[in-house]
């Protein structure tokens, strides 16, 4: 009888933890590992590019370095923000759009920089492997875009808002202060 009176009144909330991982509001169980692979592949591409000792035409190498480093650092930041509760402290309400446009931009830049670096390198094995990882990172970003569109739809499409066809707004269905 005493157990009935003192039954638990609170229920644990698994979403209240700091690290949400693959069950967060913005990253599902498919996109979370994709974001992690984007971070790792761009890190490997950047590290391999940094190990290139000499180049004859360094412009494409420097551009690839900039893009792969940017992809690594900003994707890691985005992953940390979206996989934890830190995104609520930033003050943005359009995280899906930020995620979509960032992922699309980095995928395009990785494609461009990988093509430029593939055509403008000296043909060493380190440069070739760096280019391969650049294309693999770009493929991970593209896969992330495909899954984003599949799950969330097109973020450019505006949400349908009810219109009044130019007339007055409809009256409230229920008054707040009581009298009907």
Automatic annotation (TrEMBL):
One of its GO terms (cellular component) is membrane. Residues 26-153 form the MARVEL domain. The chain crosses the membrane at residues 61-86, 98-117, 129-149. Keywords: Membrane, Transmembrane, Transmembrane helix. Residues 159-180 are annotated as: Disordered. InterPro entries: Marvel, MARVEL-CKLF_proteins. The lineage of its organism: Eukaryota, Metazoa, Chordata, Craniata, Vertebrata. It is a multi-pass membrane protein. Its main location: membrane. Coiled coil: none annotated. It comes from the Eukaryota. This is CKLF like MARVEL transmembrane domain containing 6. It is found in: Membrane.
């Amino acid at each position: 009888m005493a157990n009935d009176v003192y039954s638990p009144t609170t229920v644990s909330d698994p979403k209240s933890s700091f690290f949400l991982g693959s069950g967060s509001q913005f990253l599902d169980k498919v996109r979370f590992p994709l974001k992690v692979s984007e971070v790792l592949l761009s890190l490997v591409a950047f590290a391999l590019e940094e190990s290139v000792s000499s180049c004859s035409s360094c412009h494409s190498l420097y551009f690839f370095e900039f893009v792969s480093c940017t992809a690594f650092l900003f994707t890691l930041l985005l992953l940390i923000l979206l996989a934890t509760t830190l995104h609520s402290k930033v003050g943005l309400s359009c995280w899906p759009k930020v995620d979509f446009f960032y992922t699309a931009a980095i995928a395009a830049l990785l494609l461009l920089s990988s093509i430029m670096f593939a055509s403008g390198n000296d043909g060493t094995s380190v440069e070739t492997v760096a280019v391969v990882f650049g294309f693999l990172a770009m493929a991970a970003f593209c896969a992330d875009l495909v899954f984003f569109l599949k799950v969330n739809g097109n973020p450019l499409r505006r949400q349908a808002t009810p219109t009044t066809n130019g007339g007055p707004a409809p009256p409230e269905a229920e008054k707040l202060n009581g009298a009907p």
